[in-house]
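User: Show me sequence and structure for the first protein, then do the same for the second.

Assistant: Starting with the first protein.
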Amino acid sequence: MAAWEDSLDDLVRTRGSALVGYAYLLCGDRREAEDLVQDALVKTYSRGRAGLRATNVEGYVRRAVLTTYLDGFRRRRRWAAVRHLVSRDDSSAGHEGVTTERLDVQDALRSLAPRERACVVLRFYEDLTVAAIAEELLVSQGAVKRYLSDGVRRMEALLGPLPTGPTGTEDAQPKDSAVSTTTSEEITVITGRTSR
């Protein structure tokens, strides 16, 4: 087996479910998430980078997932309009109980625009700073703050307001917010990991 094949095999075996969980939070559909990860793996490994190991290639793949999601939004939206004509719903009740909170968060995430959704996922799932999100999305920090503000406001309208801290003001830390707590529960079910 070639070195890149070993690296790919190791990455998919050890981090595959986490990558699909990350993509799922972006797109909201399991099949699309798997397709996003597949496309990202092809893009990452087709460039022939030397020395790719599972420990250092995951960042490349996550970036490719995010880029593919943002670039393909219109294409996926067109397909979603006609998908029901050519496919059937394969969903069935799983062994884990799906909570209404998880479904509410999924619906709230689906209601966000692609950039808002990407910012919310990167902030609350990846736990990135505003500066890191701006660098990742190649936008200004002000744009990231606007997307986060708009996204959280839209999610609050659907899920309810963020809880207040002991002084009666909203907590500044996103880990103490209702959106983050609910998202963490959703992430645990999706990826099988509790924190990053």
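Switching to the second protein now.
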Amino acid sequence: MPGHRLAVELTDFGNIAVAGPMVMVLVLWFWVARQRRLAQIIAINTACAIAADIVLKEVSRTLGGEFFGTPFQLSTGAPSGHAVMSMVTYGSVAVLFAIGSAGVLRFAAIGLALALIAAVAITRVTLHAHTPADVATGLLLGALFTALTAVAARRMRGGWPAMAPLLVGVLIVGLLMQVSGLRLTSSEVM
């Protein structure tokens, strides 16, 4: 099934082992560019999003219902960790490029980031890994931490580093991690 295989490949862009190294590229880029506070905030926000996902999954396992309810019911695996990770990773990319770049680069980075967020969210539901409510909860959780990154980026002092090489670096690392086959979910972290 080529469609199923494509869905699996797309959903893996929300996996910690794929998206996490992409966040590391962001953090290192801003650290080297002497925007260390922003680098720290990106790292802390990502770590806190993962931790919050793990805690909420444990709560939903304890209190949640089965997967067989309505699409608006949270499952015992809520929220979707892939949705959290895609929103915090690619949402941060979109925010950073919206603020720190211009022209075609800005629109390309934002468009790619939003496409990846949407692809991960849709495939989590179509692969029957989560309910729509699980995915929506994951996206909201990730958006909270992305908003904190946006506030920090807006308050950044000094000039923005070159952003085109950052996008290339993030894409290369993401694609290398994707083809590596290494996968790690928040459930495995627990």
